[in-house]
């Protein structure tokens, strides 16, 4: 790991005000309602479709083909985007999958063997939070983990690797905030240790999969108070997105609106010597190129 502080790339920071993402289709939860963000304005999907889609943000994924097609015909509205109104873009998935040790250097810093099957756990849905929500620090081992989050758009049951991307609605940014004490207590209980209230910020929105030139190679990172602590690319995933969908859907069915936290690269607090942890007052910025940046203040 390279612990030297670096500034976050300016192109990434610019996405907070969205001009670089002008024509990108972004599905959001604005004040609790299913919305499309176009040119820094908000289109309410239930209003725009006479109730055919929405107002529940989960309706976007329950009617994904309709939502995508209808949204392509929409233009900007007169309602400006207010970042403070953005909630978790996928607030109540039926299933949340999260993958541990899915980047080689992260497995090394955690002192764990590289797995031969995806190391799968859940973040309970009640832990999910909005892209600008505060994170409540628990104890002195609350850690950060930037992750690419996959949102399922079509039911996936025994899906082949080559067919996997067609079951994805879009991608978003996630923070897999982790209480390392609770995570490692009683042997290992990843699911509970990563599910404190507010431990799953996601957003700022979901970008539909067809908007990416190459959805399998995105830069992602996070900073604490401006110091870049994680900086990697998703092409370095041990189990890539199609493999995760193939493996998970060989065991169970993935439903529209389900999300997969795909794992974090190196640079988490527990990888430092001595270990680092989040403290009240810290500001976490978390980004993925082509999606956007979240900002969460620790309290
Ligand atoms: Zn994680």
Q: Tally the structural domains.
A: 2
* Structural class based on helices, strands and sheet pairing: alpha+beta
N-to-C SSE string, H for helix and E for strand: HEEEHHHEEHEEEEEEHHEEEHEEE
- The oligomeric status of these chains comes to single chain
The CATH architecture name of the largest domain reads Alpha-Beta Complex
Q: Helix share of residues?
A: 10-25%
CATH level-1 class of the largest domain: Alpha Beta
Number of strands: 17
Strand content: 25-35%
Sheet with the most strands? Answer: 11 strands, mixed
Name a few traits of the molecule.
299 residues; alpha+beta; 2 domains; 11-stranded mixed beta sheet; 4-stranded antiparallel beta sheet; 8 helices; globular; binds zinc ion
Could you explain the architecture of this structure?
This protein has 299 residues and is an alpha+beta fold. It folds into two domains: 10-86, no CATH class; 90-297, Fumarylacetoacetate hydrolase, domain 2. It contains eight helices and 17 strands. Strands 1, 2, 3, 4, 5, 6, 7, 9, 10, 12 and 15 form an eleven-stranded mixed β-sheet that branches. It has a four-stranded antiparallel β-sheet with strand order 14-13-16-17, with no helix packed on it. A hairpin with a 2-residue loop joins strand 2 and strand 3. The chain starts with 9 loop residues before the first helix and ends with a strand. The model is unreliable at 1-22 (pLDDT under 50). The structure holds zinc ion. Zinc ion is lined by residues 98, 145, 147, 176, 261, 263-264. The site of zinc ion has 7 residues, from loops.
